[in-house]
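Quick one:
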Amino acid sequence: METSQSPSFATKKFSLNFVISNGGGGHIATYNALQAIIEQQQLPWQLSLTKVEELAARLAKQKKTLDIYRLLGTTSDEVINKAQKNEWKLLQRLTMPFNKLLIKLNYEVGVKMLEEDWREKQPDLVVSLIPLFNKGLWDSLQRAKPGTPVVTIFTDFADCPPAFWIEPETGNYLVCGTEIAVEQARRLGVKEELIVKSSGMVIHPRFYEPIKWNRADERQHLGLDPDCLTGLVLFGGCGSNVMLEIAKRLECFQDKLQLIFICGRNEDLASALITNKGIQKRFVTTFTQEIPYYMHLADFFIGKPGPGSISEALVMKLPVIVESNSSTLPQEQYNADWIRQKEVGLTIRSFRHIHKAVEQFLDPETFARYQSNVATVNNRAVFEIPEILQQILARSSQLTGGQLLEQG
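Output:
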């Protein structure tokens, strides 16, 4: 998608509104990554946020919607995060159909509130980083400011139809990080000019920064062996109690393996791992912004099949081990297939079998093969998105200018 840009366009200030959700943390992480690269490139854009939870709270306060979560004294993102922390996988799977039902029941009133927001904010471009709401975003903008482009940036490897990421009856641009997402959009009838392929998921630009540390020295600083195979165990910002299971199953590799556990905001989990006498060579920490640092110190990654954590690990050249079974979130099931197709790691049906997967990585020849495959993955999405958005803005400006000339 190429559009010529005039000198005046390059300096024109545009208002971009990003739509995010708190659930899972990946949507906020994607926004933070894009905000950082936009600031680095000094683009003349004014960024604003629309948080769907805040909209839902406003509607609930006005008693205009049915919100079962609020009646239960919680929110959808709190349920998702608590389910992840405690490995309540059935509850995790039930949140998607339940949220779809709530959106359908509250659709018109939600669109009306979004319409009022757009009339006030007057964005030049709306960027959606969330699923489920993309039809409502399009419909509300058509009422408030027709012709304003909507860009949906996938934060999942693939769509999970129906009515998840792809809404073919809208005019939303779709930025797809995998070939399967592109194929899904085409099969659902999305116009070719609205489909944009990026080279992967958006992750923060700090994962691409030059390495500033000596790995052996830093491992020793953390009390680790500078030469021992090192796994990084990470399950998002809330951690997961399954990390205790992983620690127990890997005790058999005391002399050959050491582990870095990042427990997120789960202080109890961190305490349990610190006092665990099974894994002698280990480092345990809680929530940190220094994930690139710890990934640099590791040789491979163990975690859930989330698109963000997989993508971060691969950019840092770490083969991955993830769990995939009937309890895996529907939107993350394809991620495990992608890992197998690209041969960039291992998928197991249960972390009860983690020792069997790690045993493969302990074989130097096998591990070297996975490292070689990981090295071929070249995800530069965070650097590609600003140019994509610029081209869409330029196209929109040309179309708007043409319409004004016709009217004149």
